[in-house]
Structure formats: C-alpha cells, structure tokens
Design goal:
The structure holds two protein chains of two kinds. Chain A is an all-alpha fold. Chain A is built from 20 helices and no strands. Chain B is elongated and about 70 Å long. The chains are: A mainly alpha, B alpha/beta. At the A-B interface, helix 1, helix 4, helix 5, helix 10 and helix 20 of A face helix 2, strand 6 and helix 3 of B.
Chain lengths: 454, 292
C-alpha cells in the first residue's frame, strides 16, 4: 500500500513541472465542478439564470482544462512503469508488479472518476432524460480507456526527443477531447472501451505473468528465431548506404507504412473532414519532425567526410527531403483516396494537399533548427506552427457537417494561411542553415554524457 | 551451522545454444564476501543474474534463502540488494524522489545510514538523475541497494565509475555491512586490488566454469611463483608439474604453479634438481597466470 501511494504521488509530483500542473489541475477541475452548479452550461432552455457569455465560456472550459492538466501532471506514469517493469527492478523490489499495476489503474481511474463527476455536474440541471448514473458510468468507462491509451501514446512519445514530444503532446490533447463525443452516443459500448479493457488485461497479464510466459516460450521462440534467421534475408551494410544509415534515414518505408494504419483508423473514426484533416496534418508534421535528431546524428558524418558544416547541412537537408517524400507521398495518396471515398469536395481536397506538404516541410526545417535541443524558442515556434497548421486544417475542412452540405470554402483565407506557412518554412530554413554553419556538437545533444564532458 | 544463503547446483546457462555457464555449483554462507573475477564475457553478470532470478537456468538450480531464485517471494526479495552494472534509475526524478520511491517498497529502511552516505558521498538529493554524472548515478544506485540493509548484497561491477576516494569509502561501507557476520556480499569487479582488499573468498570464472572457488588465502597458498636455480642449464623440455607458465633462462627458470604443496615441491626438485625459492603472488598475477 505504501509503495502504491508513493508511486501515485511520484507520478503527479516528481518534477517541478508536474507539481506546477497538478495544483491548477485540481483547482480548476474542483472549482469548475462547483461552478457548474451555479452557472450550469447545458440547461436546454429550462429557465436557469443567465450569465455573461465570457463567464459561461470560462465555467464551461475550466474543469476540462483542469482535467487535461491533471492528465499531463501524471505523465511520468508510463516512464516510471517502463523503467521499473521492463528493467530488473521489478524482479528485485518486493511485490513491485502488483504495486505498479494497482498504482497505474488507480491513477487512470482517478482522472476518469473526476471527469465522470464533472460530466454529472455539467448535466445536473439538464432535463431528466439523461440519468446522472448513466452519464457517470459512460464517462468513467470511456475516459478510463482513453486516458489509458493516452498513457501508451505518452510512453511512445517519451521515447522520442525534441519536436516529437511537442507534437505527441498535442496529439494526446486531441485524443483526450475527441472521445468525449463518444460518451454521448445513444447506446452500446463505444469501441474505445473494449480497446481499453483489452489493453489493461494484456498489460496486467504481461506484468504479472510475463516472466513465466517468457520462460515457457523461451525454447519455441528460440527455434522460431533460428528459423527466421535462416529464411529471412539479413539486414546488412551495403556500400553506398553509409549516409542514410548513420543519419537514420535508411528505412523511409517503415514510417510511411506505419502511419497508414492510424490514418485509415482515423478516417473510420472521424468521418468529418475537419477532424480527419486535423489528424492528417498532425501526421504530416510528425513525418517531418524526425529531423530534430539530425544535428546530433550528423557528427559522425562530419568526422568521416571532408565536408564543411554548410555542405553537411545541404547534404542532410537533401537526405531528409528524400526520406520525407515517402511518408508524405503515402499520406497524400491516402488523403485523396479516402477523401474521394468520403465524398469530400474537390476544392477542399485540393487545398488539403499543399497543407499536408507544408506541414511536413515546416516541421522538417523546425527540426533542423534544433541544434541545441528543444528550448523555449523552438517550443514556442512549434506551438505557433502547429496552431497555424490546425487553423488552416479547420478553415479548409469547414464546420464538422458544413463541408458535406455545401458550406462555402473561404479560398482567399486558406491561400493566405498556406502562404504564411510556406513563409514560416522558409524562415525556419534560413535559421537552420545559419545554425548549422556554427554547429556545436557539445551542446546539440542534451544527454548526460555531454553534460559530464562539459 | 547456519543454512547457506545461496545454493547453486550444476548450473548451466546458454543463450541460443551458446553456453555461457556450464555445470557451476557454489554456496554463499553468512559472512562471506565473495569477489567474482573473470575476463570480459566470462559469465560474471550471468552468474549474478541467475542468483537473482532475473533469468531461468537452462539446467540446474539456484536457491536463495531456500527458495528457487526464479520464483523469489516478496519476503525474500526484501532480504536481497542489487547494484547493476548499468543503473536503472528514473532520469526524470530527483535523487531524493528516487530514494523515497524505492524506500516505499520496503518495510525497513535505514534512514540514518542513507543520510550518512548521502553526506559522505556528497550526493545532491535535489539534483535530477539525468543531470548527474555517471559516478554520482552509481553512488545513488548503491544507496538504493543498501537502504533496506539486505542480508545478501550482489554487486555487478559496482565501483567501475567511482573515483578512488568514493571507491575506498564504498569498500569501507561493505566491510561495515558484513561486520556483524550475518550478511553476505557477492561482487564482481575488474579492479582486482579491490577484490584483494575486501574479499575473503574468490570465484574465478573461466570458459564458463568456476575455475577456482575458495578462500583467498588458500588461493594464494595454492598458486605461487617458483624461482628455480640449477647448477646445470635448465632445458625448456623439462616438464614442470602443475605449471601454468614457465620461463627458462640458462640455469634459471621461473614457473607459476597451482596446487602448491610439499609433495609438489619434492616432485619438482626431483625432476629439475634445482633449488626452489617460493614467491607469493598478487591476485592480479594469479588471475593473469590462469588466463595465459
């Protein structure tokens, strides 16, 4: 019990940032729930007291913002679980597996319960067709599952550096909000709940019995591995592939195909063009963002070649353009194919194509700018860029149903936004080029080894 | 006599049919301080990980406090401490948070010991783990393994990243831990001088087997350097029994032999007719001679 409580406490308070998020998170969600009782957001014309629009907006948003802050405050959960459960600590610490499992369920459950309570408070004065217990149970299940999946997303994102972290965080914020619409579905259990339950069962089984399973399967797996080694061609170094191999751009198809699955799933889940394009734009930015590790990786190339730093930049830039062509190409093909299937207008599709390309290019240069890791300046630019990309996506997509019923597309506005994005990409390139001319490999990698050496 | 803390019988471990350890048997008694020596890849880490139950043995069995190591119950784990070769600290936490987190898993925790070591080793508890130097991280890992006062402490290259001062302090700490005679330490290291200073028993791993296991004093008495001085030139064809290494120079020869005894002395004298002078060896010399 002591370990479980300590783990939960650590998830929420281990760093200054976490502590900075958890306090406003609790205050906003708590105060927001009370606020709902005095300024009910959804009364459906039941004659409740009216209040200024700004106050209604603040009251409406506050608890949800608080819940999102609380979720991010607990973002150390996947990191700590990975470190303890996947390492040897779990084998040494007494009853560590059970403690980890309970702490993870309790943390996700805590956020889900708060969200479910917020839902109940939000609909407190709503006409009686929706029973509070129904709101509570549906919200609890959906949010518990969604938060759990978002922890997995955080874990994946946490393994990456630089701009991946930023983009992943935005993706997660988006992932938190989207399932809220699933809570309101008229009947049945939303698919995400089954995904969540399946995920937890698999996680619990792996955590509690993974070791024994591994032992049981050790022999058959070793046999299978031997067979695979004989049958499959071995990955080997081939002359002429040094540059992409050292830069990490040798497997563009992996990313290209890897993104196809979530894109198709997103098209199935979010049939509104706006939401879907929003999602695709995020992916285009992720594809480009691999460059945030370029500076650190390029040292080995510089050491082994007679290039100046300027020449190195040009070569790296070309390599990433070539690399990004694959995921971007697949993304554009999917966009046009699925967009046509969903009967999205040709004009909207046509404007979406340059948006995706610009997303990829802007993030490519933003990543190349990161010669000193992700600092406030780059972080702010990342937020601005993502904001601009999302704004453009929403402008192209129109209101959720508008694009399908002939809502007018503001072409001038879209062109302006896309020109702004192109200009931003050009500025990023200029900054990146200048920074690479004075690239300092002692500071471009923010690892402990560098610090120790410094 | 107290039951051994660890008992291993015919332990074999292979990865992908490539044997790392074959037929290894040993015991760890209360009060033992065992130094494990071996070349890179000799199987030192594998041996320690088998004891800890991190990996199942391909054949044979290890018992820790009477329980099969691969299925150690929580109560037994609470009696074991481990310092891995590569630390498994959580980068995002501060040293203080890391200590509190690990402390929460144990019923007993020696706060006074930790506070003393934190002061002596100059560990900044407010520093984030990822900002700590390799040596500081290693010190923190050692604290995490010592805090619950384990009966059995296993250390895999614990001092590799420590400066000489911290190494000396660490060794003093180990001596203090085992002073009551109820605790045991098994540690691997390439710093032979540390093992020499600390260990009362030595395990030497070679070719996947425990080439030597026994008291350090026995090892030093068993493996010695002989200076042979003959009245006639000594020929290189002369076979010196139990020799690990021999160098001939005219009527002088130097040989390192194992299993040194009065019988062996008589045997060598009979074969060579030379006068024998016996010289004791350092552990490093013994290790090098064994691996010639």
């Amino acid at each position: 019990m002591k370990a479980v409580l300590r783990l939960i406490w650590t998830y929420f308070t281990a760093t200054r940032l976490m502590r900075g998020l958890v306090v406003p998170g609790l205050v906003l969600s708590g105060a927001g729930m009370v606020g709902y009782l005095y300024y009910p957001p959804w009364t459906l014309g039941t004659g409740m007291r009216s209040s200024p629009l700004w106050l209604q907006s603040v009251v409406l948003v506050a608890p949800w913002l608080g819940l999102i802050l609380l979720f991010f405050a607990s973002s150390l959960l996947p990191v700590i679980i990975e470190r303890v459960a996947f390492g040897r600590m779990v084998l040494i610490l007494p009853r560590a597996r059970v403690a980890l499992l309970i702490s993870a369920v309790a943390t996700a459950g805590f956020i889900a319960v708060l969200t479910a309570l917020t839902g109940v408070f939000a609909f407190y004065y709503y006409p009686n067709e929706i029973k509070p217990e129904r709101i509570f149970s549906r919200a609890l299940l959906v949010v518990f599952s969604d938060v759990s999946l978002m922890y997995v997303a955080l874990w994946i994102v946490g393994k990456a550096r630089g701009i991946w972290l930023l983009i992943g965080s935005l993706l997660i914020a988006f992932g938190i909000l989207t399932p809220l619409s699933l809570i309101g579905l008229p009947s049945g259990v939303p698919a995400i709940v089954w995904v969540g339950i399946g995920g937890w069962v698999a996680f619990a089984l792996l955590l509690l019995f993974g070791g024994r399973l591994k032992q049981r399967l050790a022999r058959p797996l070793a046999g299978f591995a031997r067979l695979a080694r004989r049958v499959l061609p071995r990955a080997a170094y081939a002359s002429g592939t040094e540059f992409p191999l050292l830069l990490g751009t040798n497997q563009p198809w992996l990313v290209a195909l890897g993104q196809a699955i979530p894109v198709v799933v997103a098209a199935w889940l979010f049939r509104q063009h706006t939401v879907w394009l929003f999602f695709l734009t995020l992916f285009s930015a992720i594809g480009g963002a691999i460059t945030s590790t370029a500076a650190a990786r390029s040292r080995v190339l510089w050491l082994r070649n007679a290039w100046t730093r300027a020449e190195l930049f040009r070569r790296v830039e070309t390599a990433y353009w070539r690399y990004n062509a694959y995921p971007l190409g697949v993304l554009l093909l999917l966009y046009v194919a699925i967009g046509s299937y969903l009967e999205i207008s040709t004009a909207r599709l046509a404007f979406g194509v340059p948006l995706l390309a610009l997303g990829s290019v802007a993030s490519l240069y933003l990543g190349l700018m990161m010669t000193r890791g992700l600092r406030w300046f780059e972080g702010a630019l990342g937020v601005v860029t993502m904001g601009l990309l999302m704004w453009t996506a929403v402008t192209i997509g129109g209101t959720p149903s508008g694009s399908l019923i002939g809502e007018t597309l503001d072409r001038i506005n879209v062109i302006e936004l896309e020109v702004a994005l192109a200009a931003l990409a050009l500025i990023y390139r200029t900054i990146a080029s200048a920074r690479w001319n004075t690239l300092d490999w002692m500071v471009c990698r923010n690892g402990p080894a560098t610090r120790a050496a410094g | 006599m107290q039951q051994p803390y660890v008992v291993a019988r015919d332990l074999t471990k292979a990865f992908d049919d490539k044997p790392v350890l074959s037929g290894v048997s040993f015991e760890v008694q209360a009060g033992d301080v065992i130094g494990v020596l071996g070349k890179n890849g000799a199987g030192k880490t594998t041996l320690l990980e088998l004891v800890l139950g991190f990996t199942p043995a391909s054949e044979g069995r290890v018992e820790v406090f009477g329980h099969e190591s691969y299925r150690l119950p929580g109560a037994v784990k609470a009696r074991v401490g481990f310092v891995p070769q590569q630390d498994e600290l959580v980068n995002q936490l501060t040293a203080g948070h890391q200590l509190k987190l690990i402390r929460s898993f144990y019923k007993t925790w020696d706060d006074a010991l930790i506070a003393r070591l934190v002061a002596v080793w100059d560990i900044d508890l407010g520093e984030r783990v990822k900002n700590m130097s390799v040596g500081q991280r290693q010190k923190l890992s050692i604290l995490l393994a010592l805090g619950h006062r384990p009966d059995l402490l296993l250390l895999d290259e614990p001092v590799a990243s420590l400066d000489p001062l911290a190494r000396r302090q660490f060794l003093e700490q180990i001596v203090e831990i085992v002073a009551d005679g109820n605790r045991s330490v098994v540690f691997s290291s390439h710093i032979v001088a540390d093992i020499e200073r600390l260990a009362n028993r030595i395990w030497i791993l070679k070719d996947g087997r425990l080439h030597w296991q026994g008291d350090f004093d026995d090892l030093r008495e068993s493996i010695v350097r002989l200076h042979l001085r003959g009245t006639q030139p000594l020929h290189s064809q002369v076979q010196i029994p139990n020799a690990l290494a021999v160098d001939f120079t005219h009527n002088h020869a130097t040989a390192i032999v194992h299993g040194w005894s009065a019988e062996l002395e008589a045997q060598i004298t009979a074969i060579t007719g030379a006068e024998i002078e016996v010289e004791g060896l350092t552990l490093e010399d013994i290790f090098l001679a064994m691996h010639r």
